[in-house]
Structure formats: structure tokens, C-alpha cells
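Budget justification note: compute hours in this period were largely spent on complex prediction jobs such as the one shown. Inputs:
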Amino acid sequence: MMQYNHQEIEKKWQEFWANNQTFKASNTSEKPKYYVLDMFPYPSGAGLHVGHPLGYIASDIYARYKRHKGFNVLHPQGYDSFGLPAEQYAIQTGQHPAKTTEENIKTYRRQLDQIGFSFDWSREVRTSNPEYYKYTQWIFIQLFNSWYNKDADKSEDIETLISVFEKEGNATVNAVCDEDIISFSADEWNSFSTTKQQEILLQYRLTFLSDTEVNWCPALGTVLANDEIVNGVSERGGHPVVRKKMTQWSMRISAYAQRLLDGLEKIDWPQPLKDSQTNWIGRSQGAMVSFDVLMTDEIKNNHSDKNPFKIDVFTTRPDTIFGVSFMTLAPEHELVSKITTEAQRADVEAYIEATSKRSERDRMSDVKTISGVFTGAYAIHPFSGEKVQIWIGDYVLAGYGTGAVMAVPCGDQRDYDFAKYFNIPIPNIFEGVDISEAAHSDKEGTVIANSDFLSGLKYQKALKLSIYEMEKRGFGYGKINYRLRDAVFSRQRYWGEPFPVYYKDGMPQMIDAKHLPIVLPEVEKYLPTEDGKPPLGNAEVWAWDVNQSTVVSNQLIDNETVFPLELNTMPGWAGSSWYFNRYMDAGNTQEFASKKSLQYWQNVDLYIGGSEHATGHLLYARFWQKFLFDKGIVPVDEFAKKLINQGMILGTSAFVYKTTVFVKNGCAIDKSNDDVIENIPTLFVSKNLFSSDDEFENVVKNYLLDKKLLNPNFEDLVMITKNAIHADVSLVNASDELNIEGFKNHPLNQDYKSAEFITETDNTFKVSREVEKMSKSKYNVVNPDDICEEYGADSLRLFEMFLGPLEQAKPWKTSGISGVYSFLKKLWKLFYNGEKLSISDATPTKEELKTLHKTIKKVEEDIENFSFNTSVSTFMIAVNELTAQKCNKREILEPLLVLISPYAPHIAEELWSQLGYNESISTVDFPRFEAKHLVESAKNYPISFNGKMRFTLELPLDMSKEEIEQTVMAHEKTQAQLQGKTPKKVIIVPGKIVNIVG
RNA sequence: GCUCAAGUGGCGGAAUUGGUAGACGCGCUGGAUUCAAAAUCCAGUUCUUUCGGGAGUGUGGGUUCGAUUCCCACCUUGAGUACCA
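Corresponding output:
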């Protein structure tokens, strides 16, 4: 082969790697392990665009590098293949989602293969494969059979809880559980019916059924988790979401809130990602305080219970409790109806009615309007005993804390605004602070005043003392609150994991793990049933026979031995919350993964993926991992040591300027207006012909007059405007010139078939460009298939890395790829002299060794720092230098190939084999850097004056400071700079710089 | 509003503990080669200039012999979050 032929080479080596299973990882090895993982893709119908493989290329380079460094590398890939788009498509076309998914996966696989990734495909997983979701169901059962013991601070088997209940009741149990738990003794527990016991246990289990307010998306026909909603609409499709009460499976992730927070400290993840998880978990430290309601005769008369009502509030500022001048309840608070006085009832009810009509979104977007109503009732301040008004207001959220706040208007801006608006007193409890304009929320340095025993104290002390006193007097205690809510786990969809659950007497029962998987049933339609049940309600064979332990026809349901199965399916994050563990032993049919392989691979060393998963996948996966760790199933409680978010690749859209010519309004002319413009075609104007709207108009007018398309008499009657329209980027070349014929014949531009183009003087037509998100609708999508065809996978890989730092967003411009392509051709030419391979075994020169070793040093540092863009530059410099040195020496070129092979593996393999090797280059040792080759004897010193470099001077490195100063001062250019003045000071840093201060 | 990240030529970007700002590549300009084109090769390409130089890393200050790098304030852009008590 005489010339670099990427198509031939790449096909050859991709086949070689597949046939020889070059990248198959072993679960036993003498070598140290290294696990490199990509966030697996959802196989969408559109296939990959050049933005998608960015992270895969980076991780592949790292994986290949680690193999050269002597590691046993696990680098798998698979598909997150359950999901909404395939199901939406199924609803529209009737096509089974499994089929669409299968086809999409084929496309993905072909596209991934052609980029030359070193994946171990023997470990591929698909979340929609029953052999995989068998274990997703199994994990669900484990969660169901567990509760969170706060004393041990870990999950435990539900059996341990039952045995405590049997012996002691639930008084001593310290668990994370539902709020509304009744207390019972051991005797009571033992006397409860099985159903009652099950009901109680459900309140403790880590996955549980409950009636919760969920985000219901009518358009998608399903509930959504908080992280699946963006700006009040669904993340997928942008459909409206409403609050609705439904019975749903939930995951008690809140049990792990603190550990999820603590775990962030020991993992090397990007700070912004950690910050958003921290925010999402939302820990706040403060106190629970209980206020008694003043039991007036009116309230007492209306209720049998004579004990005073209590309003529990959570506050982060118990130190400001003497600043309380009113309380606010959420309109939905259960006490509202009980305490509202007759006089206020009408107002209160009207307000509740009004707020319930407002959607969550309205409430969120309209933060400015202050609204609320006085209930007529009073609470008693627990310390001072004073009467405090009780209001309701929708700035207090029912879903957070207790749905009630103690309002401290002097210290909280919302309370302050509310108090001002409704003329409620604003007592000042801060020493020397002016609160006439705004609340004072600074904690540090502020001294509390007018606060009984807290007066004169600063924040820290006041906080501790206030909690101490509350606990002593028995109406409050220190508490930590989390914003993190339990995660809704049911979806009313077809294309997801079925729950291994049937219902007996309305209570959920787990199917024994040995009968898994419970395979998704066939249905006629993928829509919800007529009576509003989820799509699985359409299945005819969807009942559980406990005797035969098998799924049977619904007609056999007798609720004695055959029971109905769960109709919901699991959400998208179920399968992705543990897949990284499955890769460690993907083919295992006996268990989740063998102990031995889990023990060997431990966890992911490097995880690369998008930042959009910060509060979804990455939080849930950490939660499941911690749970599996508690159960002794996995050996570590954080699944990924290091994580990198790759930046998005943006598209560079192309715009062409189209004219609209019309007759000015109100022009009276004898001809009909249409005649003036009827012969004027659609015109496009090249970008460089104008810089303002006026110029644009002139260009068009001149063109029309010139071509006699416009009668000069009517020139002033027409108006010309421009609008920019997207042109497909594939029709534009590197110099921003449009392929005019291609544009006219493009299927999307049928309207412009006879359009005319006003071109530049050189007859080219220039488009203007703008960076936008890469998307089909913007005609700026670049397909990697085309790039691989024209320039090859090695060029694609190098270019994606060359674009800029991995973590940054950056625009794609195909024109730039010619740079890396010609680099590869130059590399090839180092080995070839004309048509012949020409390699010398001669000893390299000092210069050649210097080039090689500085490249080794830089590339190694770059890879360790994930700075892949700079190592591509380094390769270019090395090849440029070696070309200039006419170097064709084996001792230089062999190590160079190893350096390049992680980035451009195909060309490296090819040249390596041409050098006479039969084995793949992929496990050859990485070249060792030797500093001795970089030792210099002289330095080209920058000579600066007041810090500005004016000229350079080559001096020996062993020259003393004094000699340097003498030589520099004696130099004619120094004298010219100084113009006779004597310098104040001369700074000399040997080996670095000389700075003369004037 | 709050939190975080980032502002460097026409463009993507480089400058690793403060020490020659603009590496490398694209694009552009000129030249060689060619009947011509593609490809390839060579030279130039921050701005400004009276060709000596001078200015310059979002803006304004500061620390330093020396600042793209450190500190303060501000501006702009992007991301996340949003009545969380």
C-alpha cells in the first residue's frame, strides 16, 4: 500500500479486532484492573450525530492508554433500551417497541463499530432484555424486603423488623418510615391480621405503595419524577404536568439522604455536579418547634377533643424565635378548617378555592404577588406566651417541611413582605440593625436583642441555646430536614420492566425470585385501557398462579390461587441504576454477578457522560449502590470513583438571506400593484454584499434594475426586506460557500427551484454562520458516517478531541477536519518514501530523540489530565519536526506509533504491522520517558524591560547570575532600550527570564 | 433572585507551581507545482505604526521586578436551581 487509504485500513482492523476478540476483558488477571465506562445510550431512531461519540472517544483513548500501561481494562458498552420514544412510536404505528428498539440498536452498533472503539462487546447489556431485567426485578424484591435502621445507619432485612415488632412493638424502632405511623405494642402486633401487618410493614419498606401527590402528565399518560420535569413541563415532549393523587410504588431514597451527601466527599466528580446533587438533597439544619393553638370557646365547641391543637413548624433559625409575630399555614394544611373562626371562614374558603385552581406552574412563576388570609385563630408563643396571629398563605408550600412556618418578618424577606402587605407588626430582635426597608437575614456578626435569654448572643450561641431550651421545656428539638423527596417508581407505560408483584386482598405480594424474570406480556394496544388503567391492563395473560408459579390468563383469576399482576411498569432509571455492576459479569445466568467478579472489578474507575444526568440517573444509581452495599451484594458503596462530564458539541448553522419584495402601502399607481412585482423571482443575496439593511435593499434593487425585472419608474414604490433561513450545512463548503444547485435541488427547498442568487464578484455565494444546538430542525446535524467515509474514523477521533477541552461546549465545523486528515497523511509519509516502505535501523540523532521524548512526556501528562486536545497538537508538532528532520528511524517511529495508537488506532495498527509485527499494537508497553534527552546547555533568554519582553538572547545555562547581568547590560539592544538611563534593578531568574527595571 | 462555570486574533483554541501571550489547526493572502483543478509544498497572517517602535488576554482598580494566571469591584455569556422556612 503506497498511500494512506483510510477506508481499506479501518475496515481491515475493525474486522481484525472483532475476529481476534482483542478487547475482551478477563475477570481474572495478574494485572491491576481498570474499569472505563460510558453512560450507555438510549438507542433513538435518529442514530448518532457527531456530538454523541465525543465522550466515547475520550473514554476509548483512556482505555487504550491504560492497556498500554499494563492494566486489565474493562471497557463495555450496552443500551438503555426501555423508554418513551419507542413506545410513542408504537402507539402511533402499532409496531412493537421491541422491534423498533432492535432496529435502532443495529444502527447504533454499526455506527459505533465504524469509529473503532475498543469495547468488549461480549459483555453488552440491554435493559429491555429479560435476562437483564430479571435482576432489575430481583433488586426491586430486595428493596421491598428491606427497611432502614437509623440506629445502625443502614438497610436491614425486613425480618429483623418483624422480630422486633413481635417482641417489643414499634416503640423502640428507629426507622426511616412514613410519617403517619401508629404505635403498637408486641401484643397488639401479634393480634393484628396479616393484612394489617402487611399494611404496617409497607410503611417501613424501602420500596412501598402509597397514595401520593404525583406529577401526572396527561399527554404521556404517565406520572413523572421530579427530575423528569423541566420548567413545569415534561422533559420529553414538553407536555404540561399536573398534581394528582395516585397509588404508586415509591423508593425511600430519603433514607439515604445524608449518606448520599457524605459520599460526595470521597468521589472525584465535577464540582458543579456535586453542587447540584447537594442542592437537590437540600439539607437544612434547624429545629422542629411546636406552637399550641389558643383554644377559644369557639374552637372548643366545634371539636370533641379538648387537647389544644398543635402547629409544628420547621425552622432553620430557632435563634430568632422571639421575632415571631405571626404564623403562616399552607392553604392545604389540615388544621386550617379546624381553627378558622366563623367570622373569617368565608374569606378563608374563598382563598383556598382560588389557590387550588392555580396550577403549580402559576404558583411558581408568580412569586411577586403577595396573598393570604387571616384565619381568626391565634397560637401561643411557646417562650413568651404571647398571642400570635395564624394566617394562611400560598407562599408556604404544603409539600415541604410541615406545611407551616413561624414567621419572623425582621429576619426573613418573605415574612417581611407578607407582614408589610397585611400590616402585621415587625418586631426587631437584632441589635443596631435597621429593618425599616428590608429584613435582615445575615447570621454572622449579628447580635440578638429583645429576646429574653437569647439577648446579647451571636448566632452560633443563640442557635444552640434556643434548641437546648426548647428541648428542656419539651416543645421543640433540633432537627435536620432534607428537600429530597421519595422517588415515585411506577410508570403507566408499556415499554418498561414489569413489577414482580401480584395483589392478594389488595396487598402487594412479591413473586419468589426463583421464578424471575416476569416477562413483559403481549398487548393489543399500547394505550391506557378504556377505564384508565395502564397499558398492561390490555394484556389478556397477566395473572399469577401461585400453585404453578407461572403467568396465566386473566380469566383464571379467582383471588385464591390466581391473582392479578401489577399493571404499572418501572421507570427509565430502574435499569440504569445498576448496569455498571452487571458488566462485571454480564453473562451470568445464576446471579446478578458473581462475588468473585464483583470483588475483582469493584467499581468504575472512570465514568464519562453528560451533565444532564446530575440529579436523575447519578443520584438514583448512587442510592441503589449504597443499598446493595448494605445488603452485602456489592463490595463498595460508591459505584464510580471518577466522573467526567463531556461538553456538548454544538452545530454551526448556515443561513442564507432571502428577499421579500412588496409594494409600499398606500401607493397610488395606475397599474395594478401586482404588476410591479409580478416578474420578480425569489432572490438570495450573498452575505458579504451588504452590511446593513439599506445596503441589502440597494444590492437587490440594482440587481433587479440591471436585469430589467423592475421598471425604474416604480423603483421607489417597492420595499425590500430580508430574512435569514437555514440552509443544510452539507451544502456549504469550508469557505462558507453555498452549493447553489444543491440548494435548489434539496428536497426541503422545493419552493426555491427557480430562485436567483446574487453572488459575490468571484461568483461564489456566501452564507452566514451561527452556532446553535445541533438539531435536525436547524439543518446543522453532521453525521459521523459521512465523516468516516470521507476522512476516516481516525480523523474523526482526532478531530473531536482537537476541538477543545473535553468538558467544554464547543461548536463543530467540518472544515477543520482537513487539518487532522493531512496530519495522518504526513504521519504515513514518515514511513513511506514514495511508494516504498522505508525504515532505517540507524541510531537516532540527539534532535530526533529530543522530539520523541518531549512528545512522550507531554502526551502522557495530557492523557492523565484528560487534556486530549493538546496532545493532538503535540502529535502534529512531533510529526512536523520529524518530517523536517527527515527521520525514518525505527527507534523513533515505533514508540511514536504507540503514543498515537489510543487516538488513531487504525493507522497505528496498520503501520505497526508493516513494521513487521503480527500482534496488535494495543497491548504494547507505553514508551518510557527519559529526561536525559531533554537536557539543554543553552537558553534563549527573554530580556524584558519593566516586565515587557523586548528581545531574546541565547546564553549558556551554566552562566552565573553576575555573568548574565554583565552580558545583558553590555548588549547594544539593552543600551538602546535604556537610552542612557541607569536601571533601578535587574531581576535574573536563571533558566527563566531577565527583567530590567527602569 | 441564588449557586456555579467561563470571557484571549476572522474562527476552534494553547500558555501545567506568576516568567517570551496567540502553540497547534481552520480560514485568509501571496508563491511553487499543474494545460487546468484537486492534492502537495513554501512564505505570511493580534492590532497599530512616521517601520524606530507602541498597544494588547471582558471593564476598572490592587498585589508583584513581572499578572491571561493571584486579590477586590463591575459588565457580559452559559449552565443549574428557584417562594425549601
